[in-house]
Amino acid sequence: MSDNLPACPQCSSEYTYEMNALMVCPECGHEWVPAAGGAGAEGGAGDRVIKDAVGNVLSDGDTVTVIKALKVKGSASGIKAGTKVRNIRLVDGVDGHDIDCRIEGFGAMQLKSSVVKKA
Fold first, then answer.
1. Same domain? 68 vs 107
2. Where does the record place the Protein YjdM N-terminal domain (predicted)?
């Protein structure tokens, strides 16, 4: 092979491959974002990868769709499945709520990445 891809940081397998912005190990299934500076350990906590319910990597500014109906405290009706949420922001939220967003008709709130899929 002409590419010099890094070995898997979990199992040290040399059979890694690129999938979009991620590196993938076919032996152990580990996925990671390659370090831009070359060799070195993890860059820090800011390199955390947040995925939606079907495994797509999310980033700031993405548009997502809610995949199941959600109850909202203080509201007679909740958020319906299929609701589009634009311009999300990824945060280190409380209790697994890692998406900060504004939903039309409800206002600002936080969602879990496990209840959305990338649109």
1. yes
2. 5-32
Q: What is the pLDDT of residues 53-68, one digit of tens each?
A: 999 999 999 999 999 9
Does 109 share its domain with 69?
Answer: yes
Closest CA to 112 of 78, 82, 73, 67: 67
| Domain range for 24 | 1-42
56 falls within a domain: no
Number of domains in the chain: 2
CB 56 within 8 A of CB 64: no
Return the exposure string of 37-75: e unless at least 16 CB atoms fall within 10 Å of the residue's CB, then b.
Answer: eeeeeeeeeeeeeeebbeeebbeeebebebbeebeeeee
Question: What is this structure's pTM?
Answer: 0.59
Q: Provide the 3-class DSSP secondary structure of residue 45.
A: helix
Distance CA 94, CA 91 (A): 9
Residue 3: Cβ-neighbour burial (10 angstroms; 0-12, 13-18, 19+): exposed
The CATH number covering residue 31 comes to 2.20.25.10
